[in-house]
Amino acid sequence: MGILSVMGASAVSVQACEGLRAGPKGVVVEVVDGDTVVLDNDLKVRLIGMQAPKLALGRVGFEAWPRAEEAQQALEELALGEIVEIRYGGAERDRHGRVLGHMYVGENEIWAQKAIVLAGLARVYSFSDNRFCLEELYLAEARARAERVGIWDGEPYYQVRQADRPEQILSRVDNYELVEGRILNADRVGQRVYLNFGTYWKEDFTIVIERSGLRMFEQRGLDPLALEDALVRVRGWVDRRDGPRIEVTHPEQIEILATR
User: Fold this and answer.
1) What is the pLDDT of residues 65-77, one digit of tens each?
2) CATH 2.40.50.90, applies to 3-152
3) Per-domain residue ranges for the chain?
4) pLDDT value at position 14?
5) Angle 90-86-151 (CA atoms, 0-180°, nearest 5)?
6) Is it the case that residue 260 has pLDDT exceeding 80?
7) Alpha-carbon distance 204 to 17, whole Å?
8) Residue-wise burial string across 190-205, b where 16 or more C-beta atoms lie within 10 A, e elsewhere
9) Beta-carbon neighbour count of residue 187 at 10 Å?
10) Do 115 and 3 meet the contact criterion of CB atoms below 8 Å apart?
11) What is the pTM of this model?
12) CATH for 160-258 (3.40.640.10, 3.40.50.720, 2.40.50.140, 2.60.40.740)
């Protein structure tokens, strides 16, 4: 069953995300992978707000992620040969020269990001300089997880990790992960905040918020120290400094699931 027949055009229409700036238009002539297309005006567009499973694309030593071809095929079905409009919500180009935007397809203006996330073929993925439309995309991802479609149908590679199992998270260093758990302790040390999920910080999972990230929390009127005892889901790239950790650069990386 194709991506459009699963969702229907109305579920991913333009009304789902408003307030964006107009960008370039064109016809999609190539779908590079599940979140990147090329237009007939030679613009390469990275669909911001989501991350589809990655293809190897000729990179030496890089193994394609599970379901990467399926994600590419879904985006091809949706957009290849179609007239699209790109709309901006934040930074408009990346360091590779790619256009960064939300893509609307055809006369029905189908919002490509929401369609792919709803199909369970991408995870929500944001940057500190590109944070528009995330609420709708989080809802779409939650629906896909609940319905166990795409990458959420039991594929171990994409399962949500548990913060109280740091050894599991350590096995995913240098990978983009979703981690759920309750924050046991929130502490500020100098210009950074540590949100600790265990009693032994040298081994347990930790969220780290550096000074630049803290400024974004302040701009939103949010205090990360108030997250102590909250049940949260955090997403980001796992690294290791003593125990496993994820650096949070903007508030939208943390979803509050419960405060008690």
Assistant:
1) 999 999 999 999 9
2) yes
3) 3-152, 160-258
4) 44
5) 85
6) no
7) 38
8) eeebbbbbbeebeebb
9) 12
10) yes
11) 0.92
12) 2.40.50.140
